[in-house]
Design brief:
The chain is α+β, with helices and mostly antiparallel strands and 183 residues long. The chain has one domain. Helix content is 44%, strand content 17%. Helix 2 packs across helix 3 and helix 2 crosses helix 5.
Length: 183
Amino acid sequence: MAVPFFRTVCSPELMALLDAREERAWIQRKFLDAAAPPQCVVQISLNVPGLPKRINGDSAATAEARGIFLSALGAAPSFEVSLSNCAGIAHLIVFSVIDARRVKKAAMLVEEGSEAGRALDIDVITSQGQISRSDLGMAARKCVICGEDAKTCTRLRNHTVCETRDVMRRLLSRFQWARRDSG
């Protein structure tokens, strides 16, 4: 009996996205390898479903989120770089002498500190892997549309990409509006 052969065709956009994500992971690994003592890399980016990953105002929003995060953490980074590629905008920040769990708690405060913070994705990565909310005994993030577990909604495709992108655009515009008002 012949085994069926399935061919997967990836669009150029999808291949570029995968390459861009691999670039981010490679930079994170290089930072962790170079840190003395190795501690953590923080990646500040946006939750943008679908393609393209860049949306209007993303650079300003992530730059502002970076400032809010560093202020909430109260610690200076060892090194940082901003990256713009097909995976979107990301600020990669290295901390050498700090407890990574404390860093994740500050990240969660920024993500949950305002409705606009729901558009943010702040990951904390160590040489042992990413620190999750569950590692800190916290509940998973909720879906911005229905309030259920966000990963479950994504996996089950409970909402369309267009619907979710629209919500993220609205959150981002609120973030920008709040930023303009505070300045």
